[in-house]
Amino acid sequence: MLSPVLQEYGLAASAKDISSLQSGLINSTWRVETRGTSYILQKMNDAIFKQPFLIGENIRMISSFLQANYPHYFFVKPVETKRGSQMLQWENAYYRVFPFVYGSITFPVLQNASQAFEAAHAFGTFTKNMELFNAANLHITLPDFHNVALRQLQFNEALKTGNPGRISDCKMMISEIEKYQDITARYQSIAQSDQFLKRVTHHDTKISNVLFDEKDKAICIIDLDTVMPGYFISDVGDMMRTYLCPVSEEEKDTHKIGIRYEYYEAIREGYMSQMHSLLTPFEREHFFYAGKFLIYMQALRFLTDYLLNDRYYGATYPDQNKVRAQNQLVLLAAYAGLEKKLNASPKRYYH
């Protein structure tokens, strides 16, 4: 099945082994071993990304800018086809190939705070290096991806049109959600402010999107499908949401949910060591808010999906999205409760 695709990249003749990699949740991924080197082959999920070629154009623009301005910055550029394209359409599917980064390791979950620092530093470095690039030139690959105001409207609509039984069953969670609507109001103020800037933003800063070496040092960031113009709170907030808690959003036992203080410090110091001088004073005031923003938005999305009978995320067991929403609400309460303590902690890596 993949041979014609590899042929277009000039790899079919030398390919010795093709093995499926199961780490990606969106795209189908394979490792292709050839006689000379290894490659990563991906089949794009065009049910999620409606216009995959826009992703290719974004990555091409980013790659060209970094090569011209930061030639020593390690950026994994897609391999071109024989026709000079970085993405291939074949039989109504879209494919791309990346060189395999030897000596690299990915982690599905954080092992320590040092990794959190390294990841935050890596994402901060990427946005810093792209500072002089006009972010407005990038295509929007996922419209309204982190628009919490839209997610709030969708939630409110689900309260009117959703499953009546599920709405009744979730009265306490709905009341809890409504306590945090000021987060949406704050976002709306941010969107109207000229002191909150749209930058080149990754939008998916989970730890598995960073390649590490054997000494736990970040090599580079990967998976740039969601790179678009955005606010820094998207990248910082996603790190807060996925790095601070010792358990994932799938955890049913809410007693295990909590905030790891040293991980917050690591994220802040790693990211701000690169971005502090570039952020406006108004943006810097919203560093802690970034975590509330992303955790709340994800709680909204999970509960909305549950009320609408799991249309978007689906469910592998009954009430899974309800469990996820409850998980995120507990995390949000724990995080919000530490605001004074976390904001008062000493800042060591920047001034």
Structural class: alpha+beta
Question: Uncertain runs with pLDDT below 50, 5 residues or more?
Answer: none
What's the level 1 CATH class of the largest domain?
Answer: Alpha Beta
Q: Give the CATH topology of the largest domain.
A: Aminoglycoside 3'-phosphotransferase, Chain: A, domain 2
Largest sheet: 5 strands, antiparallel
What is the CATH superfamily label of the largest domain?
Aminoglycoside phosphotransferase (APH), C-terminal lobe
Radius of gyration: 21 Å
Sketch the topology as an H/E string, one letter per element.
Answer: HEEEHEEHHHHHEEEEHHHHHH
Query: What is the global morphology?
Result: globular
**Estimated helix fraction:** 40-55%
Mean of pLDDT: 93
Number of domains: 2
Distance between the termini: 55 Å
Q: How many extended strands?
A: 9
* Physical arrangement of strands within the biggest beta sheet: 1-2-3-5-4
> Could you say what the CATH architecture of the largest domain is?
Alpha-Beta Complex
Instruction: Classify the beta-strand content into a percent band.
Output: 5-15%
List the total number of helices. 13
